[in-house]
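[job 4471] stage=fold_predict status=RUNNING
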Amino acid sequence: MLIICNGVFKSGSSWLHAVVIEILRMNNIPIDKVPRKYTNNVNSPTTIIESKLFDFIDNEDYRTKNYITKSHYYLAQTMQRDYDYDTYFFFVERDVRDAIVSHYYHLKRKYFFIKGFKLYYLCIGRLKAYEILNFNRRYRTAFGRHSFFNYSDMKYDFESFVTAISSVLGLRPLTKEEISVIKSNTSITNMRKEILAGKSKYYSTVERDRHSLIRKGQIGDWVNYFNKSQNEAIKQLEEDKSSFFLRMIYFFFFTLRRRIFRIE
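[job 4471] inference complete, writing structure tokens
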């Protein structure tokens, strides 16, 4: 089988990916190594980049082997393709405001010139919010709600979340004890330890304090950052009411940049 843990940036896709791996391990299902030719970074959990996905599906034996990749796929052709029953897409959705705060800290730790949240939101954050909401609409249209998991459910109803993943994959129900082990192994503390010990590939492109990018995962932390006007602007985007100017700026600084520099 091929499992694709997809999600917009800072949505919780790393956590989703880690949980799925633990579920497979708990079921003694071996995870096969994806050939290097399908990734642009062997040190990344994205073992299959989007431009190589169709090549992988057409040429690799994922029906008898087991592969998994973490991704941020977004292209229309990826969303519109018909996939067979051995291919599983899982999506995680998070309050866009919390995702923006997490993205802010990601950039702040990666780039020295990122300063206060207000300037970040004006220049980058609102564009990233537009992207997150737009991508999630595409995902829901293409795959339906059954492939989606809510970050808050992962946080507050972990047992039901793991049970749902196991059910979709056609695996046996896990015991409470097994789920407790998975929860411990994928906790923020443990995921940070794995990075510090060099056993984890998450955020491999970040050179310093990589472990700190596994943040506290607090729900509702956005209230400490967003002012009233910013929050109202987000509500407009959630209602799919974005200005032509915003869409044009997004195209030039996000879409066009990805195409020119082949960012995946």
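[job 4471] summary: The domain at 2-261 is CATH 3.40.50.300 (Rossmann fold).
[job 4471] exit 0
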